[in-house]
Amino acid sequence: MKLVDSHCHLETKDFPVTGEVIERARAAGVVHAVVVGLLQKPGDFGNALNAARAHPDFLTPTIGIHPHDAAQATADDWNELERLAALPEVKGIGETGLDYYYDHSPRDAQAEGFRRQCALAKRTGKPIVIHVRDAHDDCFEILKSEGMSKGMIHCFTGDTAAARRYLDLGFHLSISGVVTYKKVEPLQEAVKFAPLERLMVETDSPYLSPAPFRGKWPNEPMRVAETAKKVAELHGRDPDEVALICAKNTASLLGLTLAF
Predict the structure, then answer these.
(1) Which H or E run includes 226?
(2) What is the DSSP letter of 197?
(3) What is the pLDDT of residue 42?
(4) Separation of alpha carbons 182 and 180, rounded Å
């Protein structure tokens, strides 16, 4: 099985030694991972860029400001995001979007930050990575009004109606370990509905360990295999085939040159 983890977080507070995480991932069939860089505090976008520079054969970074932190970001942070987003090794913008479950930032600040990053993605020609929780209607409307058609809905947990709207815009759906949980039939139906050519698999590590590891911290890129197996089961296809299709989808969207 050849896998690409389309979305993971590898901050040093959770993974002090990135190389060990990569070794375990390679042993599980993971050939590449997309590591997400986010604003951690004023002036600090975390470990993603440094980790990717240390392991360029395995990690590709994105950069963004999470909706949780939209209200805390300073003018200097937005300027730094612009600078980092222009770097050739950065292949995506985000994660950005809307989170109405936690509402750590006011919703108007989330929307403003989201729109700013949509504009940045268009200026740089890079795909956008979307976080959306309890906010599908507003998320869709912003993406549509901003003319966005290139990106992924990370950790997609919506139903078939939500999937159809994002797919119609041109987006890919990135599926996390949540799809392996019990009582997630609407999500599983949405995954069955979506064409394999528009799906990806991710861990969102260190969060959302898939079954049978649910609740075990931290999640790691090596566990993306469990999600790929579940997606294959839902589509009635061979797991190796589905893993490869999802890996190629991620590589194509982000412009990665990978040997499969």
Answers:
(1) helix 224-235
(2) G
(3) 92
(4) 7
Q: What percent of the chain has pLDDT over 90?
A: 99
Res 259: pLDDT: 86
Structure tokens at 245: 């299709």
**128-133: strand order across its sheet:** 3-8, 30-38, 59-64, 92-99, 128-133, 151-153, 172-175, 199-201
Q: Is-contact 195 210, C-beta < 8 A? A: no
Separation of alpha carbons 154 and 95, rounded Å: 8
Calculate the alpha carbon distances from 67 to 48, 133, 181 in Å: 18, 10, 25
* Single-letter amino acid, residue 244: L
Using DSSP, state whether 119 is helix, strand or coil.
helix
List pLDDT tens digits, range 148-176: 999 999 999 999 999 999 999 999 999 99
Long-range contacts: 107-112, Cβ < 8 Å, 24+? 107/138, 109/70, 109/71, 110/67, 110/70, 110/71, 111/138, 111/142, 112/70
Q: If you average pLDDT over residues 211-216, what whole number do you get? A: 93
Q: What CA–CA distance (Å, rounded) separates 182 from 90?
A: 36
Containing 228, the helix (H) or strand (E) segment is helix 224-235
SS3 content of the chain, % helix, strand, coil (to 5): 45, 20, 35
Residue 260, pLDDT > 90, answer no
- Check pLDDT > 90 for residue 145: yes
Q: Are 225 and 29 in contact (CB under 8 A)?
A: yes
Q: What does the alpha-carbon distance between residue 234 and residue 220 come to, in Å, rounded to a whole number?
A: 23
